[in-house]
Amino acid sequence: MAIGERINFFRNMRGMTQKYLGMQVGFPEKSADVRLAQYETGTRTPKTDLTAALADTLDVSPQALAVPDIDSYIGLMHTLFTLEDRYGLHIDEADGEICLKVDVRKNKDAAQLHEMLCAWRQAAAMLKVGEITQEEYDRWRYRYPEFDTTQRWAKVPSQELSDILIDELKKSND
Fold first, then answer.
1. 46: alpha, beta or left, given left = phi > 0 and alpha = psi -120 to 50?
2. Residue 2 CA neighbour count, 13 Å, CB half
3. Where would I find the H helices in 42-158?
4. What is the pLDDT of residues 9-21, one digit of tens each?
5. Please, which residues have CB within 8 angstroms of residue 160's CB and are 6 or more apart in sequence?
6. How far apart are CA 64 and CA 116, in angstroms?
7. How far apart are CA 91 and CA 99, in angstroms?
8. Which of 1, 40, 153, 166 could crosslink 8 through cysteines, CB 3.0-4.6 Å?
9. pTM summary value
């Protein structure tokens, strides 16, 4: 979905009108609905600061609005192919169903993606057994990673930063 479609999706999910959302992000009442309609239809593309304000009002992460274009099956397939190349995602079969798996040995990005997917699986499992509600699950997804309580993923420092830290530690031990 394009960003306008995502704005529309979340606005409707929250039960907001275009006028209300437009006013919440600072547009004048007289033109708030027209401005929002322009963004939702793709006539205009919101700048970063407006995207952040929309995300805040809609109670989602800005990344939830700025998703890749997967409107078509072909676009989705190419997105999956890119994930295969970058993250080691591969197609497989389990119990007679098609599934996607991550080869954690491919690289550190693949290992990080695997951890994130494990956190998602945990949240979905909690929903399935009734430990959390659909609303809590949706909040987890749409505000990710803010409510990811596993915190199993972390940004790895660059090799350059690691080398500097090691050099400094060696100097302090001399």
1. beta
2. 10
3. 48-58, 62-65, 73-87, 108-128, 134-142
4. 999 999 999 999 9
5. none
6. 15
7. 6
8. 40
9. 0.65
